[in-house]
Design goal:
Layout: E1 14-18, E2 28-36, E3 48-51, E4 56-62
Antiparallel strand pairs: 1-2, 1-4, 2-3, 3-4
Length: about 60
């Protein structure tokens, strides 16, 4: 699943995100969502989240 819709995300979900510094390379980081940072219901590049380990990035894949 894609992470462009806020309604499909919630704290506790396992996701893969791309961090700001990794946008060019496309390197994905896996983790558990702690907070949703994007307020709008949709974002074309992915909803911005904070993972439980403190890393911030845009959701590219929802794993479950």
């Amino acid at each position: 699943m894609s992470g462009t819709e806020r309604v499909s995300l919630r704290p506790g979900l396992k996701v893969r995100i791309v961090q700001k510094q990794d946008q060019r390379s496309g390197k994905l980081t896996e983790g558990i969502v702690k907070d949703l940072l994007t307020k709008s219901p949709h974002h074309p590049h992915g909803i911005k989240v904070r993972l439980e380990n403190g890393i911030v990035g845009r959701v590219k894949e929802i794993l479950g």
